[in-house]
Amino acid sequence: MSSENSKNFSEESIFKPAKAFSKNARISSMAQYKRMYQESIDKPGVFWAKEAKELSWQKKWTKALDWKAPYAKWFVGGKLNVCESCVDQHLTNGRANKAAIIWEGEPGESRTLTYRQLHREVCQFANVLLAQGIKPKDRVMIYMPMTPEAVIAMLACARIGAVHSVIFGGFSADSIVDRLEDCQAKAIITSDGGYRRGGVVPLKANVDEALKKYKSLETVIVHQRIGSASCPVKMKRGRDLWWHEEAAKASPQHEAKAFDSEHPLFILYTSGSTGKPKGILHTCGGYLTGTYATCKYIFDMQDDDVYWCTADVGWITGHSYITYGPLANGVTQVMYEGAPNFPDFGRFWDIVEKYQVSIFYTAPTAIRAFIKAGDQFPEARDLSSLRLLGTVGEPINPEAWRWYHEKIGGERCPIVDTWWQTETGAIMISPLPGCTPTQPGTATLPFFGVDAAILDETGQECKANEGGKLVIRKPWPSMLRTIYGDKKRYRDTYWNDYPGIYTAGDGARTDKKGNFWITGRLDDVLNVSGHRLGTAEVESALVGHKVVAESAVVGCPHEIKGQGVVAFVTLKAGIKTSDALAKELRNHVGKVIGAIAKPDEIYFAPALPKTRSGKIMRRLLKELVEKGTISGNVTTLEDAQVITDLQRQIKK
Q: Mind listing the domains of the chain with CATH numbers?
């Protein structure tokens, strides 16, 4: 956001937490936040030791932090089993018969697992893995739909010390090969298929295709999700096993052994980049402490909450805020298998009403899609159970924030706009719902232990409203430990700009109150006639117009300005495109940000190219405007026809 834009949207729109919410919140005042934050910065070992003590440890650590930049070790000498904190502890603290996971499949079937039932299934599957010779530190790939079995598989790996690497179910066979080759996995856990918008995604068939190229894999375990002629499965003797058959032979009893705090927990590959995939490595003790604490404070999790994070387990959000953080807090959570618009855009709100969801965490992309679909869908449902809303994945534009606040939260629910990354493991910048005044478009203030700053190219801290690089100056428990198998790439990618300081790769600024405004990836920052413009800034201005549902902005070479601004705009239902409207939108951007930000070209698109998780693939749009064609990988696209239509429009 520019300072002009932030004034329009934020200085006149400060939302303070309702007294009724603050009264029962874990952090109920800014004075309490400031006191705890200062302790977390001045005495990080003392602060994080208090949080870590609430988890299940089989051996206490001797030192909270060992820091030799850029390598951190947290809770040195401590031993734990991550699965104990997420499952076992709840068998003895009164939650054994409490619902852990309430699952709904896309066709409509539902299933509830209590913590006792979850424990039984995790133990049983841990024994299945052991029977196949899986040992501590062996890598196990997981390629599954959004079913409880995906979480069970992750927890079972953690229980026996195997390192899981989850692949998003929308990825192609080639993506599976890349990841298998990088981590040299010993086994892969998959399903026959999964449901998506009424169709079936053939997951096992994709695995079979990948294994034509990667032949070192020893074991494939297949969960039967579809089980019909619509999803035929070929099983290779000696390699492929049915989950249900192996589980029937396995004991439901398993004693959780302790592993070192720095024992590897999972590798998660970053998506959408070219070249060799980056395997982000997270370890046990620090990661679990970070996800546990952020869930507890940022989502203000209470024992009677019903929590729903709409992410896929294939992303870091699904790891931290479906599998590990919520279960360590003993919360009841909802899992949903399918698309948010199947059979229509009322599906999410049906689920909120049906299960009385109280905490709802979703992506701005989804929110903008709901805006385009129309207010009639949420208005037809009872959403009064909601008490807290959250957003994740990208900066949320102010107009989407306002709609979310009014139409979903009924103007009573605080919104936690969270900034974090696969690499950070847990939320780094976010409001605390019981105390932080919120403003549309800003993630507000750093979480405990997060020493965030904005630096210029020389390493000096930027002044208020001066854009620069977002950095973290001190280690935090849930930080990545390395890029798997490539320490040099780890150092060069994240620690090369400023000595001993983590560079996030995002552009940002702070306002006079210290709130952080994320402008987007640094490679999404345009240099127009010497002026730096965040693409998120221009997108936000466009979506601020009453007829725009969604937008994506990229740069293109410009003979005079260096870079031009190209906008792809999706209009709300019933709005017709015209040259006059394009001119009106250009002028609107000029009014909100300044003339320098006016798009040189505006293309009206019925839909934007997205992955199945809802992430806009700006890389493809950039390639389109620069070359007129697409040569990159499009296998993760939700709908490839979108690119074909845009190509035709650009050629005209």
A: 13-508 (3.40.50.12780), 529-651 (3.30.300.30)
